[in-house]
Design a protein that fits this description.
The protein is mainly beta and about 140 residues long. The chain has a single domain, classed as Beta Barrel (Lipocalin). It is built from one helix and ten strands; from the N terminus they run E-E-H-E-E-E-E-E-E-E-E. It has one helix at about 20-30; strands spanning about 5-10, 15, 30-40, 45-50, 60-65, 75-80, 85-90, 100-110, 110-120, 125-135. Strands 3-4-5-6-7-8-9-10 form an eight-stranded antiparallel barrel. It has a two-stranded antiparallel sheet with strand order 1-2. The longest helix is centred in the first third of the chain and has 11 residues, at about 20-30.
Length: about 140
Amino acid sequence: MAQEERHFDAQGTPVKSRQEALVTAAATGSTNTACLELRNGNAQFFIEVTFDPNTTPFLITGGTITGNICGAPWEVTGGSMGSSLRIEARRQGSGQCADTITILGDYQVPPSWSGTYGFNSSGIGFTHNTLFRGYSSCE
């Protein structure tokens, strides 16, 4: 059964929407960086996200995707990470590639998410495991 997603501001006060939590995050200037690595067979994407550590789930406010994804680098435009993962990004590189990608997953142990990703809002999903690699430096 799907759980309703709730959002909180930096003080732990419930807010109505993701956008309201983002406004609070921008006002306080609180962000952190997390490094993720998506794998699906030979596909390997390196994902660096900036997020607000004062929200639940963590609201993703930006970042980049590199690796062997066509059209890299990709600009992360939003999402969240916690018991589930959602990353939305837009292609910045050149080539005959999709314009957007959406990555979805459910948390598992060891720290990672398993789910699907798709391009240009299509219903087609490729399976993946996205590993949590750490905070602060993605090098």
